[in-house]
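Researcher: We plan to redesign the surface later, but first we want a full-length starting point. Tokens attached.
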């Protein structure tokens, strides 16, 4: 391959950037910060966001999926991200369905990409309005360990909303065992949260409470429900 030849404007630009970086690093950070804020504002204008006026089953299931494999990421300076991840081979189709629901409910979609050197897929987009809507409805910000709890309004909601929330949880962190003793299982890093979920599964018969134990990964709890 031949060498890339820079014109005089590109050379001058590089020299100017290097001088600015060496002599005025604070000014450079200010310029970058303004550029980031401008980009966020342009993004908002290009992709206007709406929020649901009424809660429905799709949002409850989407919230359950966010509790399982999702995350709200705040990077400061207006950078608020909504992210969902999964197995690239097994969960790509499901992430596409959730992406369609984000578009239907909020008017926003994300690009689903395969993470480098991993068999995982990541769906992520930036939106202050969507971020804050999830926070208002019980989704924790950042690392979820120690923060997960079933939102009070889910417990008080009609049964179809509670079932939709559980569907989202089990689509991401649950499964079905079809061996001799048929059962469903659910994984979580939070033991108090997993107890809340088992109580929801047991309703209305509290005698059906699940058994809870440590999974093979010692930082994870697992609940079995027959």
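Model: Full-length starting sequence:
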């Amino acid at each position: 391959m031949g060498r890339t030849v820079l014109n005089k404007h590109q050379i001058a630009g590089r020299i100017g950037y290097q001088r600015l970086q060496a002599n005025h690093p604070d000014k450079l950070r200010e310029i970058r910060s303004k550029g980031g804020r401008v980009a966020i504002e342009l993004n908002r204008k290009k992709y206007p966001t709406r929020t649901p006026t009424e809660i429905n089953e799709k949002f409850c299931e989407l919230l359950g999926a966010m509790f399982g494999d999702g995350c709200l990421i705040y990077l400061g300076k207006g950078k608020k991200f909504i992210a969902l991840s999964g197995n690239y081979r097994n969960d790509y189709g499901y992430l596409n369905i959730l992406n369609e629901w984000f578009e239907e409910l909020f008017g926003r979609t994300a690009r689903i990409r395969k993470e480098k050197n991993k068999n995982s897929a990541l769906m992520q987009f930036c939106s202050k309005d969507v971020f804050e809507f999830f926070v208002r409805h019980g989704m924790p910000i950042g690392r979820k360990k120690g923060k997960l709890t079933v939102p009070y309004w889910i417990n008080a909601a009609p049964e179809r909303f509670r079932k939709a929330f559980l569907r989202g949880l089990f689509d991401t962190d649950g499964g079905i065992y079809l061996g001799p003793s048929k059962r469903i299982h659910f994984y979580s890093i939070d033991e108090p949260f997993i107890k809340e979920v088992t109580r929801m599964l047991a309703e209305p018969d509290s005698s059906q409470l699940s058994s809870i134990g440590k999974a093979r990964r010692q930082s994870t709890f697992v609940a079995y429900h027959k």
